Amino acid sequence: MTPTATPSVIPDDVRTFAAEQGAADYLEPVLDLARQCFPGAPLHVFLEEDMEIAGWWFIVVEVDVTGWDTGRIAAAYDRWTPAFVDFCPPAVRECFVLGWR
Question: Domain count of the chain?
Fold first, then answer.
């Protein structure tokens, strides 16, 4: 996978968090994976704290699937899940959450 994410797409706080969690080398490739699995969907990357566990933060890779039908979303998600699991070690996976709107 060749990283294509530009620095302006990834906020500084996300980069800092990824570095602190040992996930910095995976950040841009995970975004590339999202682009491959959800082609044409705009991405938004941000940090979010878990609503139930205080102090538990993660990087949200949000894809905008506005206008996509359920089958297309499901197919993209079915590509994402095994590729993400194969690519990222468990400790790194814990740093990321896929979201969509």
Answer: 1
* Amino acid, single-letter form, for residue 41: A
Residue 97 has pLDDT above 90, yes or no: yes
Quick one: DSSP state of residue 15? H
Confidence of residue 1 (pLDDT cuts 50, 70, 90): very low
Q: Which domain holds residue 33?
A: 12-100
| CB-CB contact of 27 with 58 (8 Å) | no
Q: What is the pLDDT of residue 6?
A: 44
Q: Is residue 16 part of a domain?
A: yes
Phi, psi of 61 (to 5 degrees): -105, 100
33 occurs within a structural domain: yes
pLDDT digits (tens, 9 = 90+) for 33-68: 999 999 999 999 999 999 999 999 999 999 999 999
What's the alpha-carbon Rg for the chain, to the nearest Å? 13
Distance CA 62, CA 55 (A): 21
Is 88 a member of any domain? yes
